[in-house]
């Protein structure tokens, strides 16, 4: 039972870590939500903004000026939290690989392997919380920005909605949290 639970938690942690990495690297955290007579599809991400022409499929991306430039708080906070979540989940994944019962590393000391799995679960939990805070922070800020424009009757021509990268970050963080619960609560 313990080995099956470990392998399940490892598979979930691996998939969720990949989701977190993809969410951090991709550029569709916000997408334009106007479908009326749109000839282009606009995406804003943490690192750049892209526009795709719907007629010929040509995609053009503009990198943000610099990492150290003055950016909106939502971009800076989300970048920081997502990078920390990526690093912590990657570290937890490495510790979890070494702590699995099916790996021959430290096979003669099962107590140490169990502690490695538990430690990986704790680290994975910390990374999942950071990733979830970053993803939800960004989504709430997009919603508040849109609500402020609507409440003041301001229409700029394009309004943005949550993109698939934001949802991917939330899914990856939730998966890491579930894997963390499996490793810390259910393994004993």
From TrEMBL:
The gene is Cldn16_1. One of its GO terms (molecular function) is structural molecule activity. Belongs to the claudin family. Its main location: other. Residues 1-28 form the signal peptide. It is a multi-pass membrane protein. It comes from Ptilorrhoa leucosticta. The chain crosses the membrane at residues 118-140, 162-187. PANTHER family: CLAUDIN (PTHR12002). Keywords: Cell junction, Cell membrane, Membrane, Signal, Tight junction, Transmembrane, Transmembrane helix. The keyword Lyase does not apply. It is found in: Cell junction, Tight junction; Cell membrane. Coiled coil: none annotated. This is Claudin. Claudins function as major constituents of the tight junction complexes that regulate the permeability of epithelia. One of its GO terms (cellular component) is plasma membrane. It comes from the Eukaryota.
